[in-house]
Amino acid sequence: MTQPEEWFSTWFDSPYYHLLYSNRDEQDAHSFIDNLLTYLHPKPADKILDLACGKGRHSVYLSRKGYDVTGIDLSEQSIAYAKQFENERLHFSRHDMREVYKPAHFDFVLNLFTSFGYFDNETENVVALLAAADSLKHGGKLVIDFMNTEKTIEHLVAHEEKTVHGIQFNITRGVENGFIVKTISFTDQGQEYQFEERVRALRQEDFMEYFLMAKLRLVDLFGDYKLTPYCRLESERMIYVLKK
Q1: What is the largest CA-CA distance in the chain?
Q2: Are 62 and 51 in contact (CB under 8 A)?
Q3: Is 50 helix (H, G, I), strand (E, B) or coil?
Q4: Backbone CA torsion sign across 139, 143, 144, 147
Q5: Beta 167-176 vs 159-164: how paired, if at all?
Q6: Which residues are within 8 A (CB) of 4 and not within 5 positions of it... i.e. 6 or more apart?
Q7: Which of 59, 66, 168, 191 has the fewest Cβ atoms nearer than 10 Å?
């Protein structure tokens, strides 16, 4: 009996995913990376892994800053797109984050913009974290940037309509069985589509438990892309800096 496809393996490979999110703010992303680099202070020879890199926008930016970067993602379409930017110090590979990519190879692993907590089985989140830790050299650092779940749930917009390039996306959001679930429905050229995004509603205490299991030490916890200290009620993000 074949296993049902995981939501992220279909939605992230869909052209509609990239269409819906085509207005993401590049300037915000670059500013965050700049702040991270100032904080982490990587050496020119350091190797960086961009874990769940999507189409590689952060990897490309890091590469332009002069670093040796590898981007990995499960989406075949995204990696095929990203490969056009490859050079001597920038590489992309299709890979499942639940498996170790290169043991003890990287100085930094970055997992940005809520690219964690996708798996139905909670154990698999720990497996993914262990794989990330195993990819780090001893003393290397892992950065996990996740939504501040408390605040996200409190301010969840239950229904939203968004028109992009003539397609009206109907978006509903809710909390179901420990997941924040976003359902995206739309019609294009007479055909109806429905996709789902499911992210586990992980709170700070869940992450702390995971880090303990992965033998990772928390160095810092920031609450936004300017790297100001985390506040449970006010912060937009939970940005964990961990050391192996």
Answers
A1: 54
A2: no
A3: strand
A4: positive
A5: antiparallel
A6: none
A7: 191
Question: DSSP readout, 175-222?
Answer: EETTEEEEEEEEEETTEEEEEEEEEE---HHHHHHHHHHTT-EEEEEE
Rounded Cα gap, residues 182 and 153, in angstroms? 12
Single-letter residue type at 127: V
pLDDT at 207 over 90: yes
Note whether 153 and 179 are within 8 A (CB): no
The pTM is what? Answer: 0.92
CB count in 10 Å sphere of residue 123:
10
Cβ pair 46, 63 in contact under 8 A: no
At residue 215's C-alpha, the angle toward residues 213 and 220, to 5°, is 105
Structure tokens at 138: 């001893």
DSSP H/E element including 167: strand 167-176
Give the residues across from 242 on adjacent strands: 142, 218
Amino acid at site 119: F
Can you tell me the distance from the alpha carbon of 91 to that of 60, in angstroms, rounded to the nearest whole number? Answer: 10
CA separation for the pair 227, 244 (Å, rounded): 21
**At 235, which helix (H) or strand (E)?**
none
Give the per-residue SS3 of 55-123.
CCHHHHHHHHCCCEEEEEECCHHHHHHHHHHCECCEEEEECCCCCCCCCCCEEEEEECCCCCCCCCCHH
